[in-house]
Amino acid sequence: MCYKPVVLIHGVMTGSASMEIIKLRIQEKHPGTIVYNVNRFESWSSLETMWHQVLEIGNDIVKISASHPEGINLIGYSQGGLLARGIVQTFPNISVSTFISLSSPQAGQYGASFLHLVFPGLIKDTVWELFYSRVGQHTSVGNYWNDPYHQTLYESYSVFLPYINNDIPSAQSENFKANMLKLKKLVLIGGPEDQVITPWQSSQFGYYNSNETVIEMHEQDIYKEDKIGLKTLDETGRLHIVTIPGVNHFNWHINVSVMDDYLIPHLD
Q1: Catalytic residue at 125?
Q2: What is the dihedral of CA 153, 156, 158, 159, to 10 degrees?
Q3: Phi-psi region for residue 203, left (φ > 0), alpha (ψ -120 to 50) or beta?
Q4: Which residue, of 49, 162, 165, 183, is most buried by count of CB atoms within 10 Å of its CB?
Q5: Ramachandran sector of residue 214 (left: φ over 0; alpha: ψ -120 to 50; beta: rest)
Q6: HEC string of 149-207?
Q7: Is a pLDDT exceeding 90 seen at residue 70?
């Protein structure tokens, strides 16, 4: 039996080739399933601003969705999962049935290992001086860098994450939530051995408080106040939290066991 079409969005500093294993596995397990593997913003282009990528890739997916009125599955890995959420929340005319976020910094990022993938010379504790500026906001990573010790600057300068999280009210706040609530299923996959997404619980909307203690999703305002619909999705059985031990960040999208046991079964 084939699934509804699947759209894949790759992570930072990689490209569509990195998602080919997932594509081939889905088609091997369920022949006839159409898989679109997004090839925009590869390599260094993946550092372009989040909003630019959301709008460009989103317009591509609008066309895909129009060809498949029955709905599509959307899978985003790492930064791609945050882009995917931005697309879900921004485009009312994209019919996403199931959205799977595969080890993505949904609540932000504050870790040296991720930072050094892109900016090896920068230091986690002081990079806020770059990211929380007009110049720093011209990078995708700067758009979701969430320093728990500099929250006022984060909210003052960050043009992406605090808005799609509805931490800062905007003209789009109601739409951001309403579009999220159109999902039939939201799957948040992550795990404690990720070693790149920091804290790893960000993949499931958990994050640091002001003294770097991790507060899990259910205790976060974004959930308790239902800012983007997480609580409603949860209470209606549409939110699935999947924690998988022993998987490094660079293996999520190439680990066939993860695909077979946790990813493919959630597709429809």
Answers
A1: no
A2: 180
A3: alpha
A4: 165
A5: beta
A6: CCHHHHHHHCCCHHHHCCCCCCCCHHHHHHHHCCCCEEEEEECCCCCCCCCHHHHHCCE
A7: yes
Q: Which of 18, 78, 101, 140 is catalytic?
A: 78
Share of the chain above pLDDT 70, in %: 100
Q: How confident is the model at residue 170 (pLDDT cuts 50, 70, 90)?
A: very high
Kindly tell me if the per-residue pLDDT of 156 is higher than 90: yes
Which tokens in the block code for residue 114? Answer: 């991720």
pTM above 0.90, yes or no: yes
Tokens 């790149």 map to which residue? 196
- Are 71 and 96 spatial neighbours (Cβ–Cβ below 8 Å)? yes
Q: Which of 10, 101, 140, 194 is catalytic?
A: 194
β-strand partners of 11: none
Task: Answer yes or no: is pLDDT of 118 > 90.
Answer: no
Token reading at 234: 């949860």
Token readout for 83 is 């882009």
pLDDT at 76 over 90: yes
Angle at 135 between CA 143 and CA 16, to 5 degrees: 50
What is the pLDDT averaged over residues 78-93? 98
What mean pLDDT value characterizes the chain? 97
Question: What is the C-alpha separation between 167 and 227, in angstroms, rounded?
Answer: 8
78 a catalytic residue:
yes
Q: Collapsing DSSP states into helix, strand and coil, what is residue 71?
A: coil
| Alpha carbon 99 to its chain's center | 10
pLDDT of the residue at 263: 97
Catalytic residue check, 158: no
User: Which residue among the candidates 10, 65, 249, 253 is catalytic per the annotation?
Assistant: 249
Give dist(CA 183, CA 181) in Å, integer. Answer: 5
Distance CA 137, CA 142 (A): 5
